[in-house]
Amino acid sequence: RGGRSSYVYDFEGTAPQPFETDKVITPKGFTWKPLVKWGDPIVKGAPKFDFDKQTAAAQAKQFGYNCDYVGLVRARGCHDKGLLVVNNEYTNDELMFRGYTGAAALTPEQIKITMAAHGMSVVEVSKKGREWKARLGARQNRRITTTTPFAFDGPAAGSELLQTKADPTGRRVLGTFGNCSGGVTPWGTVLSGEENFNGYFKVDAAPAGQEDAFKRYGLTGSKGRSWEKVDPRFDAAQDPNESNRFGYVIEVDPSDPRSTPRKHTAMGRLKHEGANVTIAPDGRAVAVMGDDEKFDYMYKFVSSGKYVEGNKRHNMSLLTEGDLYVAKFTGDGAQDGVSDGTGEWLPLVLDGKSKVPGFTVAQVLVHTRLAADKVGPTKMDRPEDVDINPVNKRVYAALTNNDKRVPSQIDEANPRATNKHGQVIEITAPKNDHTKTTFTWKLVLICGDPNDPATYFNGYDRTQVSPISCPDNVAFDSKGNLWISTDGNALGNADAFFMMPLSGPYQGHLQQFQTMPHGAESAGPLIVDDTTVLCSVQHPGEVEGASPDAPVSQFPYDGTGQPRPSVIQVFATKH
Ligand code: FEO
Ligand code: CA
Ligand code: CA
Ligand code: CA
User: Which atom belonging to ligand 1 lies closest to the Cα atom of 290?
Assistant: First the structure.
């Protein structure tokens, strides 16, 4: 190996920073640079970013707002170029427009700008020396926004619940938004989770017959974001089923900018944080997923078909048909001093049939939360990112927090009431076969101030670790070390990235890697070739009373005077 500092897992931990620090702080020997920023003209013909002269037409060709998930798709053996695929989850309208006084006062053009700033961005990137560069205007660059046509697939496609005035077939829908985390599939496409879709719809009253579902998905009483003023489908009174068409795992083939992305109904409808796929020993694709809401569940999808190496076209059909499960965790008691136990995947759809009494397959897949409620899964502390460690083949899920849990609701997997700091759960499948319906589990991290005896760092000495709060995304380097990003640090510190070895003498030695600027969440870490950490700096400057006239953050400090959510790269300054 070529010296400590070229390997990101060999860094010296950094100290927690106050939330107000408007800086990206990297470990000694590392530096950071922006890779692509909100407004960068990524699609050919896009105008240069101009904060005060933004238009919807420009934004639709520029890099979107509030980048979250970061994926890199590379051809096998190709280390110096690839396609960066990024979620643009939501917008901070108060930071995008001077004089903002609320969604109700936005002009139609401003509303269209926010709609065009949502979705996803695909950007060709290449590496020279240590540094990655975005290739603005490159052929494969693409924006996916709230108006991009998508196709539904899977058993609920075409069902009555998905039919609208604009689409009586129930098979074609415009756009995606609220895209939080995601994953690159083994066949080179990207999955992305539609998460907080409910807040985009104006719902004065739940439509007749869907009262329970609207309530369960947080749609009832939603005021929306004024989008209904430029597109009536965002008003439930105009189209009662449009909101049933969001909350899916979507799949994008970034290699073809003209391809129609798809929404996979077979994977259920939730506030999907994201999805990550592994190939089981028998060749079936298994996706693990979280539903990001207090007291909601973890899910797993097992494809009917089998993965065929090199046959992308076939593999792109795998997520259209299969079994859907929800997780139940049973503790083995606190006497052993560890939060752990056994678990079961409870089927919702099995062999093409509904396993939920009173629900058709389409109802299970569109009103998945209501269906899952019927089978007794474990109510978790907000399941965020769920991913499979490529080295030890175990599943890791960030359970970010749940301040609403009361003492009578504690269980071994969710062991704290008023849980402000969250935990990370590890799931081990029998013989690493994730198609199996039983598993064992353990909390490898119970977050918080390490001086708090309720915290746990996978057995490591608590006096030697970093504080951490509100884990959100998880990722792995080639050694199988767990990387964690945080969102909403409840210790009052800036959000950051952390690394924690999962085995060996440093098992549980959690250290802070890099810190986010004022108001920003750390998102989507991607460890590239163990030399670079790509990550999203999401919502810099997002604080109470934020305004473009006096922003608290000017990240990435490019002279525009405004915060610009960006994907950045962190790398060692010397090899
Ligand atoms: Fe968008 Fe679940 O964080
Ligand atoms: Ca135990
Ligand atoms: Ca997230
Ligand atoms: Ca989050």
Answer: 2
In whole angstroms, give the CA distance from residue 445 to residue 206.
40
C-alpha of residue 472 to centroid of ligand 4, in Å: 5
pLDDT at 575: 58
Taking the alpha carbons of 547, 549, 553, 557 in that order, is the dihedral positive or negative? positive
- Among residues 94, 98, 35, 92, the alpha carbon closest in space to that of 66 is found at 92
Question: What tokens does 307 get?
Answer: 């993965």
C-alpha 333 to ligand 2 mean position (Å): 4
- Which residue has 């962190």 as its token pair? 570
Report whether the peptide linkage leading into residue 186 is cis, meaning its omega lies within 30 degrees of zero.
no
- Residue 178 alpha carbon, nearest atom of ligand 1: 1
Structure tokens at 80: 């110096």
Neighbours of 454 (CB within 10 A): 12
Segment 232-286, tens digit of pLDDT = 999 999 999 999 999 999 999 999 999 999 999 999 999 999 999 999 999 999 9
Q: For residue 181, give the ligand 1 atom closest to its CA.
A: 1
Task: Report whether 369 contacts 357 (CB < 8 A).
Answer: no
Residue nearest to atom 3 of ligand 1 (CA): 180
Q: Is the CB of 385 under 6 A from ligand 1?
A: no
pLDDT at 75: 86
C-alpha of residue 384 to centroid of ligand 3, in Å: 6
Q: How far apart are CA 107 and CA 91, in angstroms?
A: 15
Cα 195 to averaged position of ligand 1 atoms, centre (Å): 7
Cβ of 115 below 6 Å from ligand 1: no
pLDDT per residue as tens digits for the range 430-452: 999 999 999 999 999 999 999 99
Q: Which of 532, 464, 530, 422 is nearest to 13 (CA)?
A: 464
- How high is the ipTM of this complex? 0.95
Which of 394, 270, 388 is closest to 326 using CA atoms?
Answer: 270
Q: From the alpha carbon of 196, which atom of ligand 1 is closest?
A: 1
Rounded to whole angstroms, the Cα distance separating 104 from 119 reads: 22
Separation of 341 CA from ligand 2 center, angstroms? 6
| Pocket flag, ligand 1, residue 180 (CB < 6 Å) | yes
* DSSP 8-state class, residue 358: T
Q: Decide: 270 and 244 in contact? Cβ < 8 Å.
A: no
Element at 39 (helix H, strand E):
none
CA of 325 to the centre of ligand 3 (A): 22
CA-nearest residue for atom 1, ligand 1, is: 180
The pLDDT assigned to 11 comes to 95
The reply to whether the predicted model has a pTM over 0.90 is: yes
Q: Measured from the CB, is residue 195 less than 6 Å from ligand 1?
A: yes
Query: Which residue stretches of the chain have pLDDT < 50?
Result: 1-5
